[in-house]
């Protein structure tokens, strides 16, 4: 029951990101907010990478193979401009995190997980991090795509 609850919560929270993805054109991928260094393309890639990292490192889905380029590079290098490629990684992230969530038992949500990013938390508390991370950046995407011009 808890796993179904968390899965539904994640899908609903992520729907904001998915709605943004439907509105974005390849030209939009270069947009940034003011002098912010991160473009829409970078944010899309970053969200997908973090979701896959959560599936792999927090939920222990060993089948995930991801190189978190946005985290490694730490800044937008202007190369996240292929919409089809970004849509593919976005869908991969959705599938992998969904699979990782589904494999949890009700008891698993009470277990502790430790990462260097947020220390020791229960799996359900850690789950809150990935939900809020995606929602946070989806909000940024909405503002950028609504109010900014292509640089």
* CATH hierarchy class name: Mainly Alpha
Order of helices and strands: HHHHEEH
CATH topology-level name: Four Helix Bundle (Hemerythrin (Met), subunit A)
Please give the alpha-carbon distance between the first and last residues.
47 Å
**Helix vs. strand class:** mainly alpha
Mean pLDDT: 92
Strands ordered across the widest β-sheet: 1-2
What profile does the largest beta sheet have?
Answer: 2 strands, antiparallel
Total helical segments: 5
> What would you say the CATH architecture is?
Up-down Bundle
Could you tell me the radius of gyration in angstroms? 16 Å
Structural domain count: 1
Briefly say what this structure is.
The protein is mainly alpha-helical.
